[in-house]
Design brief:
The chain has about 200 residues and is of the alpha/beta class. It folds into two domains: about 130 residues, Rossmann fold (3-Layer(aba) Sandwich); about 55 residues, Winged helix-like DNA-binding domain superfamily/Winged helix DNA-binding domain (Arc Repressor Mutant, subunit A), CATH 1.10.10.10. Helix 4 links the parallel strand 4 and strand 5. It is elongated, with a radius of gyration of 18 Å. Keywords: DNA-binding, Phosphoprotein. InterPro entries: CheY-like_superfamily, Sig_transdc_resp-reg_C-effctor, Sig_transdc_resp-reg_receiver, Tscrpt_reg_LuxR_C, WalR-like.
């Protein structure tokens, strides 16, 4: 039996995934969470074989959950099911140890098959996305990405500095580096481009 934990903030999608997987005789949905922090707590409590998670969720994103699982060396394998067909997201997911990356518009039966393959030790990555992921490298480092994300959410440099325990000048330098690397003229354009590419 493949024990699965679902992490998805949209109740309807969460319910549909649970119902879909519940039809499979060899898959058991042992829990479901509506945000990243709840998923992390459930993960430690239930110790599922596989976590099926969205990327964008309140609290922790699916990618941050995967990174935390990797950092704590937990045996749970991570499958991302998302609407984001962005190569940058896939690259970051693979770096975080994710073994499955499926798009929500794929046929429903693909998910159960992917879970079986992953449970046997394999991987299941959307093929076209896998090709695209290696066509353009993410130029940002982790700190630039973090600062740019906060800036894109409307935070001023001083507030970002306080939040990350950095100096105001250091935050400005990170923003300036990110803008330069992306070849745009300001932080908003940099944020938009990085989001579009899946680098944030």
């Amino acid at each position: 039996m493949i024990r699965v934990l679902l992490a998805e903030d949209q109740a309807m999608v969460r319910g549909a995934l649970s119902a879909l997987l519940g039809l499979e005789s060899d898959i058991e949905v042992v829990g479901a969470a509506a945000d990243g922090e709840s998923a992390w707590r459930e993960l430690q409590r239930l110790k599922p074989d596989v976590l099926v998670t969205d990327i964008e969720m309140p609290g922790l994103t699916g990618l941050e959950l995967a990174q935390r699982i990797q950092r704590h060396e937990l045996p749970t394998r991570v499958v991302i099911v998302t609407t984001f067909a962005r190569p940058g997201f896939l690259r970051r997911a693979l770096d975080a140890g994710v073994v499955g990356y499926l798009l929500k518009d794929a046929p429903a039966e693909n998910l159960a098959e992917a879970l079986r393959k992953i449970h046997r030790g394999g991987r299941s990555i959307d093929p076209q996305l896998a090709v695209d992921a290696w066509s353009e490298a993410d130029p940002l480092n982790e700190r630039e990405r973090q600062v740019l994300r906060f800036a894109g959410e409307g935070m001023a440099a001083g507030d970002i500095a306080a939040k990350l325990n950095l100096s105001h000048g250091t935050v400005r330098n990170y923003l300036s580096e990110a803008i330069g690397k992306l070849g745009v003229s300001n932080r908003i354009e940099a944020y938009r481009m990085a989001r579009q590419k899946g680098w944030l």
